[in-house]
Design brief:
28 residues, mainly alpha, rod-shaped
Length: 28
């Protein structure tokens, strides 16, 4: 798997976790 693809998957996972945290904690 190319390095770029790994980075993109990592970004997607981080983004998903951010959205989940925002939904759980509520927006500021």
């Amino acid at each position: 798997m190319p390095q770029q693809q790994i980075g993109l998957i990592g970004l997607a996972v981080m983004g998903e976790n951010l959205v989940l945290n925002l939904e759980r904690n509520g927006f500021p």
